[in-house]
Amino acid sequence: MKKPFGFIASLCLAGAAVHGAPALATQGNPAPTAAPAATLTPGTKVRDSAGEVVGTIMQVEGGRVAVAVGNNGIVVPANAFMQTDNGPALSVTKAQLVASVQQAAQENAAALDKELKVGANVSSAGGNSVLGQVKAVNADSAVLATGTGDVTLPRSLLFATKTGLAANLSGKQFAAAVAKAKGAVPAR
After folding, report:
1. The CATH number of the domain covering residues in 116-182
2. Cβ-proximal residues to 19 (8 Å cutoff; 6+ apart), any chain
């Protein structure tokens, strides 16, 4: 089973190593350097090889950076980013990135159709914890049985990995969302 957005991450990683600096340098800017970790923070705009904004950093964890691109997202290795005068950039064009994200979303939808079954475990985005077990599958959501009761997750938050199902949430984000929905204060 393919990991969603793996193609994007590979594309960005390969491009950063081989093509990134020359592509960005030809625009009248000095050749960019690797983006320092300090610039890879949630809320930071990400640009393409032409300097156009392609997305926003949503989360940085363990050397991986989650970037919202339209209604989808990608996870890219932190070392795939280059620093430019306008902030962090990837070595692909917006058109290439959007096409790859759309392809990955279609592949994930097909993989999710195969994996999303009653009884399947759903892990956190990093795979560090099991969030719950699928109790029911609906057209646009799945009901998870969790330690705090049943929770309905939109299908758009789920994706298939090499090891099964995962949600686009860390364990802490999931716990906070469940607590908020149930009117409780999450444990920290």
Report:
1. 2.30.30.240
2. 49, 91
| Residue 155, burial from CB neighbour count under 10 angstroms (0-12, 13-18, 19+) | middle
pTM: 0.57
DSSP annotation of 85: T
Q: Which residues pair with 132 in a beta bridge?
A: 122
| CATH hierarchy code of domain 6-108 | 2.30.30.240
The rounded average pLDDT for each run of 10 residues, N- to C-terminus, in the chain (188 residues) is: 36 32 41 64 93 91 85 84 92 90 87 94 87 94 92 89 87 87 64
DSSP count for the chain of H helices, then E strands:
4, 13
Query: What is the spatial distance between Cα 15 and Cα 18, in angstroms, rounded to a whole number?
Result: 5
Residues in the chain, overall count = 188
